[in-house]
Amino acid sequence: MEMTENNFNILLDKFSKFLKESEEHLPYNFNVLDEQCGHIVENSHTNILMKILQYRNRQRYPFFEDFINFIEFFDLDVKTDSRIVFKREAYYQGINRNGRIDGLIYQKNQFALIVENKVNGAGNQEEQLKTYIEGVLSDNDIFGESLSVPERKDRVWIIFLTREGAEVPDAVSLEEMQKCCICDSQDPETGEIKGPRYASVNYLDHILPWLKENVQPCVMQKEQGLNTGLLQYIDFLEGMFGMRQSESAMMQKCREWLSHELKTGELKLSSDFTKANAGMGALRNFVIDRQKHLRTDKNNPQESMLRCTNILLNLVDELNLKPLKEFFDVTNRYFTSAANPILMKECYIHAVFNYKYIQIRDASWPRSIHFEWYPLGVNKLSSGLKYTLCFHVECAKALRDAFDEDNRLTELLRKSGFQKSGIDIKSRRNFTFVKEVKSTQPMMKMKKDDLEKFLSDAYSSITKEIVDQINDILGSKA
Q: What's the domain range around 303?
């Protein structure tokens, strides 16, 4: 069945009733943010993040330093002996218009980091980031008068914060960021925008995991106020995404309910793979459009329905990316098996916008050094016959140069079918070798045995000699 506005409304109404009945059986939960704010506004999300980042301990900003490494801003130079300024709602005047920056972090003459928050799906204002860049470049409190405009441009960084990575800056702002060498052009196939001084960061794949794994466990015992606040905010975000542990049983029932409705219920999608995939895409778009309407209808707030659409969107994305999990599981088993002489030990999924990058590295390597498949979205998995496997070094210039100058590694990579990327390495600030891997059928359509053989054949090009040479380079720079 084709997904239309009418049958979407039927599905959403049925799911809302099912969810409401299921929630009646949940354990009693109390979260101050839930009760006070319902769904908190983007300014509040920004204020909370800024408060966490500006935590200072023994003249350092440990959470800020960890965060910029977590999002791979490896070339952002933070002086530990100088204070960092954290400004919320900073107003600036551009050439043609005024603007208010959600968050601005700077260290005089060192860097200016612009934080733009779209977690609740707010639309882009015309020339929004362009205005912010112009305002920051003209601010002598950030950059001393001795710094020329080109020098200032080299020190401006941007974080574009979204809920799940779907939104992108407006076209005029993107053009301005390219002029300032903040980012490269937008990939026409994936919609991805890469740095070197731009990061697409989302709450589902980046902020929430970072808070849970890197921040909250590091809070000192004496700082109970900070710890309590973090636990409440983490719980709030998990509730926003339908990820609370207390809700795990309910979420499983929701998965089963949705799968049943889409496969065998009265609203079942076509059994034809291509049509079903298009139907899932249409369903996702309907959910997103409904969310935007709910968030902008100030006269009729519907927090329960907003939560319902949040959970439904996550469930749809889970179904869409189920084949990606199978891909990841095969990859993980291949490299972590005791029978494999190349024990990489670390396999993970890195998210940018709605695309996933399966990344593989040895546990002793910096996170910025890895092999990876990119990009792997639903469309690529369902229709692609060519996939790209690459080796990346995305970190400090001295280490990138060490890899670039290692002739033996270059020859080993080329011998295994990798070719140096045609992209201007200096502008992208990384060392990249890529290999095109062809398939007779899209990965999403492969049977389990076929997928395992396809990936095993592809991974055979990552030889022990290559891994040993990488370790030799890292050891020489230790």
A: 5-28+244-320
